[in-house]
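Typical record was shown:
=====
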Amino acid sequence: RTSKPSQAQRLMAGASEDGMVVNCEHLLKFVAEAKEEGNAAFKARKYSDALTAWQAGLDAIAQADGRPMLVEDMRLVVVVRSVLHSNRGQALMKMEFWRRAIKDLDEAIRIDGENVKALWRRSKAHEALKEWGQAEADVEALLSPRLQEVAGPLLVDAGLDAPKLEEARARLRGCREEAERVAEETFEERAEDAAHRGITELRERFEQVTRRNGLRGNTELAGELADMVTRPGGVTAAFVAGVYQIEEEDAEIMLEWVRKACMMQDELHMQRVV
């Protein structure tokens, strides 16, 4: 036996008494109030409160999912659901939660592919993350003949006429191409860069170790370590730790730096010979 829904469920879902067909008048009234509450909070820069209010509207709509609904009401519910997700995206952008914003904006666009405000906002969120290709793709979509036909006036009212969109597309394309150019640097250049950074970091660690262990003023240290490293059979970190009374981990760092320095010196000598 199936239990009847509670009065609260009926109010939130806007369900009519006969057959549980969703009464969109009730549903949309509740959602409109939640939307206005969110709008007021957003204008007051209370973005968390705005998110909560808009989510309440979405939760009410969710309770009507899967229930019979008049065809003429379905489009109204689709539009307002998309708008609430788009509004949440805008609030999250104000809070600089870019990826969370994109998640809501993705949903807004999935629900209503003609939600041009959501497309523009998602482009700006991708831009903030330097995701130039995705940002450019959303502007491309806004410039498509289909969206220009169905939502051109709305875009103009929002200050997003075709020339402005084309300017944004050109700018984003330039950013994307520059990012691609940088990413296509030769492997040798990147490897050389990484090697240089690695040497610098290793030298800094060596200096920290010598400073920490009171070896900074030992003018014989480099020569002694070089002799140990180059002797037949090499040398272990444990041996060096015992000689200088330091931790074995610190000794390993000292040896690593000296080995690298000796290798660099050998390479330099070979270059001079050649």
